[in-house]
Amino acid sequence: MLSFRLSKLALGSFAILAVLLGTSCLNDDNLIPPNCFDGILNNGEDLVDCGGPICQPCDPCENGVWDQVLGEQWVDCGGECAPCDVNFNGQLDPGETGIDCGGDTGLDCGELCGDGLLNGNEIDVDCGGPDCETCPSCDDGLLNGEELGVDCGGPDCPACPTDGDCTNGLLDGDELYIDCGGTICPPCDGTMDWKANGTELTADFETTCTLDGTTLNLGGVSITTDGIGMTLPEPSVGWISGAQIALNESSAPAGVCTYNAPGGQMFTSAQPGANFTVEILYILPEAGGIVVGTFGGSLIGSDGTGGISIAQGSFLLPIN
Question: Which of 32, 110, 184, 298 shows the greatest Cβ crowding within 10 Å of its Cβ?
Answer without folding.
Answer: 184
